[in-house]
Amino acid sequence: MTASIKQVASNASKVPLWIRTWVLVSSLIVTWDFGYCLLRPLSMEGGSLNFLWKPYNLYAKIDYFYGWPAYDSQDGFTGAQALMNVIETLLNFLYLGLLKNEKVNVGQANLIGFSAALMTLSKTILYWLIEPFSGYQHIGHNNMKDLALLWIIPNGFWIVVPSLIVFEIRDIRFPTSKSLDGSDAMNKDPDYSAAYVVFYTDVVDFEGHGMTFTCGRGNETVCCCIEQLSVKFINKKLRDLVADMRATHQICTGDSQLRWIGPEKGVIQLATGAVINAIWDLWAKAVEKPVWKLVVDMTPEEFVQCIDFRYITDVLTPEEAIEILRENVATKAEHEADVRAHGYPSYTTSAGWLGYSDEKVRKLIRESKAEGFTYFKQKVGSDKQADIRRAGIIREEIGDEGVLMMDANQVWDVQEAIDWMQDLLPFNPLFIEEPTSPDDVLGHAAIRKALYPRTKVATGEHIQNRIIFKQLFQAQAIDFCQIDSCRVAGVNEVLAILLMAKKFNVPVWPHAGGVGLCEYVQHLSLIDYICVAGTNKGRALEYVDHLHEHFVDPVVMKNGRYTAPLTPGYSIQMKRDSIDNYTFPDGKMHLQ
Q1: Does residue 257 have a pLDDT over 50?
Q2: Each residue of 24-38: pLDDT tens digit?
Q3: Which of 77, 128, 458, 573: CA 20 to 30 A from 194?
């Protein structure tokens, strides 16, 4: 694990047209420039080759590095930077060539592009710094207008643009609103999207991938925050980052300025989830294990060392956490063998999206039953009579032995949730999910008190951090804990929530209704079963049958159960073609 992170890019396989255009045009300009510098005095005013560099006659009067004063004094900087320009240009042309070769590793190409951009950036900064340290002897003779128009603005491009290339961030969006996949009472037309980040290292083919899920608009805002966090890890050694994952987590959550737009919630928290998960992906690949196996093989002390216990020690101390984990050490091997042989139980939401017709719901339920599913979730909350009709259809299709869950996606006030559910209780739902605002801890408690034991309450996909989960547990507000892999700050924070759920005897049923979420949370459920809960009885992991074809290592279902992922990493790496085609706004699928 001696590799160090050298570049951060979002949706890295797709290089935007503006970057490729800049690299090409700037390389041609730089070629012209080093030709002038290396062929002085023939290229200068009065020289035999000056006809090729006529515009430099004016610039040489603005910047003496390019004029006779530097040449006559034998100032070596102009020639030295011209020689570096040759190397920089060769790297740029190599970069452009590699981008056209589908067989070339994207990390290698981007590392070369990064090196050229960094060379341009550092060389230009040095070029600017020479002036104040030399008393502005090369440009101090100009008036401010000429200096601004002919020196500051043109040379400023060579600082600004390379900086953008080094930390270029984009987003991926799938137009699911066209088919209403993912539709519910609150999110009527989602375009499943991913703010996607890749950490490239100085080791070929060794990359860390991470993402966070959104529903379309606003994805670019998450990408902006990912950029702010990712730069903190450039040139960091992986072994140093994973030696203290609690501290690594706090690099993101503890920034004294960025936390003002949180703290530990909202867009910055979504971005933290993507970045932290990318580091876990990198770590797991380094030890050649899937993330779940990486965690399962930890000692209780190593597991706990990954967790930030700030704000939760009133309900769970590190010492208590270690004791919980020690209780399951003896059964780890048995439970690992069980998931390898039989997988992990799941339920399907794919048949229950609110925008589907009744006929489509029937068809999808029958298909899901044939695939081995016995647990089904229905979206509710938009129209009560439609909910009643749809619940009757689902119950008819799955029979009394099938398990039905309902999900309101936060649309109700507290009393409205209680009243609405009274008319749905005859269909015997196991739980009502997100009956009200995810921030209303006491509202959830009131709903649970009014409906229990005829049905139960579940929530979690919009719970932003371990602190709100702590309060839900303390208030006895939920019966099912629905962790989300990237709504909270990545694996580290999920581990804390799993332990609190165990202490309060609340089963974990992870949320997976979004692109990449099934790939993520399968690891978390296996960690919960093997290390924390010690059982998978009375538990199930959500499954939605959408967009898995875009992943290099997609989930594999068998008889309605998740099979244990065995490929090293966090299973979140997307295929290159998918990234290219769905990058917003200039991917092929967005231009049709």
Answers
A1: yes
A2: 888 898 899 889 999
A3: 458
Tens-place pLDDT, residues 523-555:
999 999 999 999 999 999 999 998 999 999 999
Question: What pLDDT is recorded for position 26?
Answer: 83
Which of 166, 190, 215 corresponds to the end of one domain?
166
Sole residue written with tokens 């971005």: 271
- Looking at the structure, tell me whether residues 88 and 209 fall in a common domain: no
Q: What is the CATH number of the domain that holds 481?
A: 3.20.20.120
Among 209, 285, 511, 546, which one carries the catalytic annotation? 511
CA 271/CA 267 separation, integer angstroms: 6
Domain housing 402: 301-581
Q: What value does the mean pLDDT take over residues 1-27?
A: 65
Evaluate whether 174 touches 189 at the Cβ level (below 8 Å).
no
- The domain tally of the chain equals 3
Say whether 546 is catalytic. no
pLDDT category at 588 given cuts 50, 70, 90 is confident
- How far is residue 23 from each of residues 9, 56, 165, 261, measured CA to CA in Å? 17, 22, 10, 35
Res 10: pLDDT: 46
Query: Is 379 designated active site?
Result: yes
Q: Assess whether 316 and 412 both reside in one domain.
A: yes
Comparison of pLDDT for 315 and 169, the residue scoring more:
315
Beta carbons of 447 and 435 less than 8 angstroms apart = yes
In this structure, the answer to whether residues 420 and 434 fall within a common structural domain is yes
- Tell me the average pLDDT across 429-451: 98
- Tell me, what's the pLDDT at 103? 54
Average pLDDT over residues 104-121: 70
- Residue 588 domain flag: no
Tell me the two tokens of residue 58: 């004016």
Per the structure block, which two tokens stand in for 247?
């501290």
User: Is position 145 within any domain?
Assistant: yes
Pair (96, 198) in one structural domain: no
pLDDT at 180 over 90: no
Cα 499 to Cα 149: distance, rounded to the nearest angstrom: 61
CB 506 within 8 A of CB 477: no
Tell me the whole-structure pTM to 2 decimals: 0.77
Q: In this predicted structure, what is the pLDDT of residue 88?
A: 85
Could you say which of 6, 335, 379, 546 is catalytic? 379
Write out the two tokens for 17: 């047209």
What's the CA gap between 216 and 584, in Å, rounded?
Answer: 10
Q: Are strands 193-201 and 171-173 parallel, antiparallel or unpaired?
A: antiparallel
Domain termination residue (choose one: 237, 253, 288): 288
533 contacts 565 by C-beta, under 8 angstroms: no
Task: Give me Rg for the CA atoms of the chain.
Answer: 29
How far is 517 from 44, CA to CA, in rounded Å? 62
Q: Which amino acid is at 270?
A: L
Number of neighbouring beta carbons within 10 Å of residue 419 = 13
